[in-house]
């Protein structure tokens, strides 16, 4: 083998590497297929799939050229390697390749119109995020108008990094929404178990893997070791999730629909909701020029203002963390992290976790939080440390906005400057 330098282009994937993270997209390929299918001059649109009306087999519709339709679907399928925002729409249109009509072709062209406005969309993998394995599962009950079968959707993260996604019509016809969600949970569990096995080869061992679902009924079925008459009709192969839950490998948590990140993989969504989820799963639309600026200056990692501010009050009021008399701060922090697992905390910045933790512990022990946060701040660059402090300042009314940002390179992490920063953050 020969070393050919840093990888920048591989099988249509453009890889932009920097000290702050990796950005992967297929902008060049997107431009090529737009030109190939004569869609390079079309106007852009906000979502890849219309919410209404839903597609069906359209037996009375005017047929179109099958070869052209399949060529378009094939081109878009390869694009989903780095574009999870297109997966549900492309897979939905792919169901009608046997006899495509003008109605189906119109929806495929809509995908190209969405692509025209998001050519530079890609996945951002930040360097500073964690490596915890988490997953989300969702289902659209009886979403197919032709067969009344449901659609399963699932995504898996390593820290903040989206590494796997899926949108698939279920093989069975679910008799209830709980059954549809249960089947989707089983599919997500299978993917998580496979990822867990692969990661063990690299020295990563995962247990109590959080799997989020927005159906309490499906969670109850999965956590109940007793087989009841209400579930005896569900195929045996879907019940293996119970064993994983019982063994402590998978932990199921309920998540409200507004925080269900897999929602975009099961159904068409309104534009505001769709764009919100696209950004939350870690996708960014960055031109080459914007990418250089973002990598050098801002680092386009999600900030507290992007996602967590609306839910900050909810977390702050929901989590109760009385600190025991004999409990150390590290023990309290471990217990707090376990409590946080019960909530859809994916995407919540580590500094927000520190702030919530700081709010919930006893006031007389708040100074000790300094030692919990010190190592994290020490690992940050000057720009990111200051940006984090300014974000936290949004939640305080103590004149933080009047602070002057330190000059470039003026922070001495080994001496007093880091204590000064911690003093501002933790009100010490």
From TrEMBL:
InterPro entries: DNA/RNA_pol_sf. This is Copia protein. It comes from Tanacetum coccineum.
């Amino acid at each position: 083998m020969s070393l050919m330098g840093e990888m920048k282009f591989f099988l249509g994937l453009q890889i932009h590497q920097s000290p702050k993270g990796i950005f992967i997209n297929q902008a060049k390929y997107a431009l090529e297929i737009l030109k190939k299918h004569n869609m390079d001059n079309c106007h852009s649109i906000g979502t890849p799939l219309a919410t209404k009306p839903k597609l069906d087999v359209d037996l009375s519709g005017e047929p179109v050229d099958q070869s052209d339709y399949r060529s378009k679907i094939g081109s878009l399928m390869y694009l989903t390697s780095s574009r999870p925002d297109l997966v549900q729409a492309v897979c939905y249109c792919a169901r009608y390749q046997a006899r495509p009509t003008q109605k189906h072709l119109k929806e495929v062209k809509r995908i190209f119109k969405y692509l025209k406005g998001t050519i530079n969309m890609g996945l951002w993998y930040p360097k500073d995020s964690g490596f915890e394995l988490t997953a989300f599962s969702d289902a659209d009950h009886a979403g197919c108008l032709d067969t009344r079968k449901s659609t399963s959707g699932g995504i898996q993260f390593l820290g903040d990094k989206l590494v796997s996604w899926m949108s698939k019509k279920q093989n069975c016809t679910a008799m209830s929404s709980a059954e549809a969600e249960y089947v989707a949970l089983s599919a997500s569990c299978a993917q998580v178990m496979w990822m867990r096995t692969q990661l063990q080869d690299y020295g990563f061992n995962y247990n109590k893997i959080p799997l989020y679902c927005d159906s309490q009924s499906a969670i109850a079925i999965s956590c109940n070791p007793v087989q009841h008459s209400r579930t005896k009709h569900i195929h045996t192969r879907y019940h293996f999730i119970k064993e994983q839950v019982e063994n402590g490998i998978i932990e199921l948590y309920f998540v409200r629909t507004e925080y269900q990140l897999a929602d975009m993989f099961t159904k068409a969504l309104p534009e505001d909701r769709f764009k919100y989820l696209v950004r939350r799963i870690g996708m960014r639309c960055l031109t080459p020029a914007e990418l250089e600026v973002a990598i050098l200056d801002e680092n386009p990692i999600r900030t507290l203002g992007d996602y967590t501010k609306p839910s900050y009050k909810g977390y702050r009021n929901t989590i109760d963390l009385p600190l025991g008399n004999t409990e150390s701060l590290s023990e309290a922090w471990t217990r707090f992290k376990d409590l946080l697992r019960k909530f859809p905390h994916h995407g919540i910045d580590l500094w927000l976790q520190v702030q919530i933790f700081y709010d919930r512990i006893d006031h007389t022990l708040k100074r000790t939080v300094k030692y919990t946060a010190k190592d994290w701040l020490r690992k940050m660059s000057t720009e990111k440390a200051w940006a984090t402090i300014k974000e936290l300042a949004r939640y305080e009314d103590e004149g933080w906005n009047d602070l002057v940002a330190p000059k470039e390179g003026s922070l001495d992490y080994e001496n007093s400057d880091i204590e000064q920063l911690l003093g501002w953050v933790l009100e010490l």
